[in-house]
TrEMBL record:
Lineage, uppermost ranks: Eukaryota, Viridiplantae, Streptophyta, Embryophyta, Tracheophyta
Record keywords, A-Z: Membrane, Transmembrane, Transmembrane helix
Domain of life from the UniProt record: Eukaryota
Gene3D superfamilies: 2.60.40.790
Any single biological process term in GO: protein folding
Origin species: Aquilegia coerulea
Protein name, per record: CS domain-containing protein
Record GO cellular component, one term: cytoplasm
GO molecular function, a single term: unfolded protein binding
Annotated ranges, domain CS: 16-137
InterPro entries per UniProt: CS_dom (IPR007052), HSP20-like_chaperone (IPR008978), NudC_fam (IPR037898)
Length: 191
């Protein structure tokens, strides 16, 4: 029954008409999905996860101003939302190398990343279980207030489902404001 309350769609962060990443969340984790550019060996991609910071890119090309081109591909550098981005252009695709602060802290020992079918899947374990994230990256791609409220309601129902596995909360609805799943009735039990 818990799978009925799993995220049913991913949220997208789009900049300049280009999808930068997609993401979703559960009570205890945030998942980020980044489409990888073609013709770059998978062993060159990297992801460094820290408690409040994430760095994603192509090895040998750190996100600093002295980045060089890869295989004579043009490189653009632009400044957006207080961060420098390095954009590698491949045929019909761009890949952004970036360093960003996370919206909320994560547990680094249980966060990880994988490469699956040309997608970098980053799983961030929330430090504060039940906290509703409006975006994984600080200052970028925030959900609108209505969507944030829907996410909070879904997480609250997911919490009820985990605490009461014999019941089905998949059709339950809230009338009025939804409480914070992290703090409601003394917070989430970690039994």
């Amino acid at each position: 029954m818990a799978e009925k309350l799993a995220p049913d769609k991913r949220h997208s962060f789009i900049h300049g008409g280009q999808k930068v990443f997609e993401w979703d969340q559960t009570l205890d984790e945030v998942n980020i999905y980044i489409t990888l550019p073609p013709n770059v060996p998978t062993k060159l991609f990297f992801c460094k996860i820290q408690a409040k910071h994430i760095e994603v890119g192509i090895k040998g090309n750190p996100p600093y101003l002295n980045v060089r081109c890869i295989d004579n591909q043009p490189l653009s550098i632009f400044y957006y939302l207080d961060c420098f981005y390095f954009v590698f252009f491949f045929p019909n695709v761009m890949f952004i190398v970036s360093q960003h602060d996370l919206t909320c802290p994560v547990k680094t020992d249980s966060s990880f990343w994988t490469l699956e079918d040309d997608i970098m899947h980053i799983t961030l374990q929330k430090r504060d279980i039940g906290q509703t994230w409006a975006s994984p990256i600080l200052g970028q791609g925030h959900l609108d207030p209505v969507t944030t409220d829907l996410e909070q309601k879904r997480l609250m129902l997911q919490r009820f489902q985990e605490e009461n596995p014999g019941f089905d909360f998949s059709q339950a609805q809230f009338s009025g404001n939804c409480p914070d799943p992290r703090t409601f009735m003394g917070g989430i039990r970690n039994d």
